[in-house]
């Protein structure tokens, strides 16, 4: 999820971290810049992992997160639960600790069959890890538009530079920013490759929801960057 006032996640974090390196006027310590000679030496499987069709990373603008939630509520209210279940119900699999069911008031027995309307929600971009990175970097001049990969074995060393630079940046801001919802810290999970590939066909067909921001593109990221006012002069955010 991305968009104005989204303070965390796979889109906000790289922008925040990039602003730190822009402020420090240093290359990102957390990436390997792949020159032509390095690309030639990589095995085919490594290159395949970075091909445009690999590693789906579906995206969603916050306007559609809110819009679809509201549309779903209105749809449900007009039909009632029973009819909504018949049109869009999916079995909800029990994944909790059976011995603790009795400790939670209102929790159904572990062996009961639960059905609830369920919809996946993503935009129409069919984004990949690579295309998301290219879109994000198109808005920030201090990023190089190139392939990169994170060093799994150096996460804390990487964050030492991120967080230290971030603290220096917000303290030296005019005026200083002692508190901000943004963070330059990126844990190992954030630096790993994850697959997010869902279909939005059901919510379109059943509820008739029409995406307000169907494509993840430069303009959508620009709105987000402008909202936090990442300034090109020194590349720091004024919040």
From TrEMBL:
It comes from the Eukaryota. This is NAD-dependent epimerase/dehydratase domain-containing protein.
